[in-house]
Amino acid sequence: MSITAADVNKLRQMTGAGMMDCKKALTEADGDFEAAIDILRKAGQKVAAKRAENATNEGVVLVALSADHSNGKLIALACETEPVSKVADFNNLAQCILEAAVKSHAPSASALLAEPLSDGRSVEGHIIELTGKIGEKITLAAYENIDAEKVVSYIHSNNKIGVLVAFEGVEGTDVTEVGKDIAMQITAMKPVALDKDGVDAETIQREIEIGKDQARQEGKPEAMLEKIAVGKLEKFYKESTLLNQQFVKDSSINIRQLLEQTQKGLTISTFKRVALA
Asked: Is the pTM of this model over 0.90?
């Protein structure tokens, strides 16, 4: 059958796909719009499979807080190149995914991918479709959902780093300012855990081995290497766990002391840092 320009434009309005892709899909589907839409979706799946191993270091990070700031959600929608991260369709999809997370209170990334958007199709389906339209890999790189007495958020100016910080023991204190300071510190200083007991065993062992190797290269006796490495591990904790880090705005105190000065009993229960890089 003859495929008209109006038909192509109609499918383009329905899917957002390119004119030539729409014409090709309609031709293959003999003018059947539902079949053409399926063809375009399958094309997106093929592109996604072909580019599955490609790195996605660009994209956008978005956050949303509940009205009372007791919940925070963060998503990172990633792509391969910076130009795509600035495309309206890409950013609109990211915003729709965040809205779906807020509406559904999805407990995990896999659950969020299964959530329907306004047209009834899943988040994952929309990502695959946009992958086919744009022609490069797009992925939900991260999703965080945390509850606390008070959650403070921060998005870095490049929209590629986002942080959520969960506070307990607020007792009516406005922690917005100190929360922003701590969130910015997390952005810059990249702590690996909240405190010593949150550092995984593999990281601890790696730091001990690094400490031993450094001491060995300095000519220290083998019998002293373990003790020296443990000492270096304490330095690692001070530099790499949030509560033990020096506060960047006042190096005379660490973050644990900053919390105590702000409000007796104020604590951080968790934090989430997501970066596209």
From this structure: no
pLDDT at 169 over 70: yes
Question: Tell me, what amino acid is at 240?
Answer: S
Give the pair of three-digit tokens for residue 248: 């960047």
Element (H, E) at 257: helix 255-262
Place of tokens 């003859």: 2
DSSP one-letter code for 193: B
Q: What is the rounded CA–CA span in Å between residue 186 and residue 156?
A: 11
Q: How far apart are CA 155 and CA 65, in angstroms?
A: 12
DSSP state of 138: E
Q: How many CB atoms are located within 10 Å of the residue 119 CB? A: 8
133 secondary structure, DSSP code: H
Q: Which two tokens stand for residue 98?
A: 């965040």
What digits encode the pLDDT tens for the residues 49-106? 667 678 899 999 999 999 999 999 999 999 999 999 999 999 999 999 999 999 999 9
Alpha helices in 154-254 (DSSP H): 176-189, 201-217, 225-240
